[in-house]
C-alpha cells in the first residue's frame, strides 16, 4: 500500500513563494482544519496535482493556481510542490513539480518548468533524480502508487466542486465508472 508522508508547498495560491510550508501526514489519519481561506483546499489540490498532473477546476490554466506575482510587486513567481511518499512496494520517492507564472506586457503566462522523481540508490545511499516530461510523470506516479489515475482523480483527491459526479447525468456517470473500473479495456 502506498502512503503519503510529507508535502512541501511554496508559491502556490496563498502559500508564500519565499517560505517553505511543510505538511506532515500522520498515520492512519491526518485532519486538515482551519478557517476559511487558510489553504485547506489548496493542500488537497497540491496532492492531486503532484499525483496526477491535473490542475484544479477554475485554475484558469494555472494562472490562478500559482501565487500572483503582482502581490509582491514582482513580474515572476515560481511555485513548487514536493511530495514524499512510499510506493506500493515500500520504496521512498519524492515527486517534485515546479511552476512559473510571469507577468507579460498584457497577460500572465503559466509554465510547468520541471518534473522530477527523486529516489535513493539502495546500494550507495545516494539520491537519484530522474527528470520527466509532464505527461510521463502523470503516468509514472499513479503506477508507483499502485492505483489508477482515475481513482486518484475521482475518488481519493476529488475536488469539492466535482464531488457530486455520482449524481450527474447517466452518460457522465458511465464515463466515470468506465474510467475508474477500466471497463473500456474489455469492450
Q: Any overview of this molecule?
A:
- The structure is a single chain.
- The chain is α+β, with helices and mostly antiparallel strands and 187 residues long.
- It has helices at 40-52, 134-145, 149-156, 170-181; strands spanning 3-10, 21-24, 76-86, 92-103, 108-120, 127-131.
- Strand 5 (108-120) and strand 6 form a beta hairpin.
- The longest helix has 13 residues, at 40-52.
Helix and strand arrangement:
Blueprint: E1 3-10, E2 21-24, H1 40-52, E3 76-86, E4 92-103, E5 108-120, E6 127-131, H2 134-145, H3 149-156, H4 170-181
Antiparallel strand pairs: 1-2, 1-3, 3-4, 4-5, 5-6
Helix pairs in contact: 3-4
| Helical stretch tally | 4
Unreliable runs: none
* Content-based structural category: alpha+beta
Mean pLDDT: 88
The proportion of residues in beta strands is 25-35%
Element string (H = helix, E = strand)? EEHEEEEHHH
Indicate the radius of gyration in whole angstroms.
17 Å
Proportion in helices: 10-25%
Arrangement of strands in the largest sheet:
2-1-3-4-5-6
Biggest sheet architecture: 6 strands, antiparallel
Number of strands: 6
Q: Describe the global form.
A: globular
Give the end-to-end Cα distance, rounded to a whole number of Å.
29 Å
Amino acid at each position: 500500500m502506498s502512503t503519503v508522508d510529507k508535502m512541501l508547498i511554496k508559491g502556490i495560491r496563498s502559500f508564500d513563494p519565499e517560505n517553505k510550508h511543510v505538511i506532515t501526514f500522520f498515520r492512519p489519519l491526518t485532519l486538515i482544519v482551519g478557517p476559511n481561506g487558510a489553504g485547506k483546499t489548496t493542500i488537497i489540490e497540491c496532492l492531486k496535482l503532484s499525483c496526477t498532473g491535473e490542475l484544479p477546476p477554475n485554475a484558469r490554466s494555472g494562472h490562478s493556481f500559482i501565487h500572483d506575482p503582482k502581490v509582491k510587486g514582482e513580474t515572476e513567481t515560481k511555485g513548487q510542490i514536493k511530495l514524499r511518499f512510499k510506493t506500493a512496494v515500500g520504496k521512498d520517492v519524492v515527486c517534485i513539480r515546479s511552476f512559473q507564472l510571469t507577468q507579460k506586457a498584457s497577460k500572465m503566462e503559466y509554465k510547468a518548468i520541471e518534473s522530477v522523481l527523486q529516489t535513493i540508490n539502495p546500494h550507495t545511499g545516494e539520491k537519484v533524480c530522474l527528470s520527466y516530461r509532464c505527461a510521463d510523470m502523470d503516468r509514472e506516479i499513479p503506477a508507483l502508487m499502485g492505483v489508477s489515475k482515475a481513482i486518484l482523480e475521482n475518488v481519493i483527491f476529488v475536488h469539492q466542486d466535482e464531488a457530486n459526479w455520482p449524481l450527474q447525468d447517466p452518460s457522465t456517470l458511465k464515463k466515470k465508472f468506465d474510467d475508474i473500473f477500466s471497463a473500456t479495456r474489455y469492450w
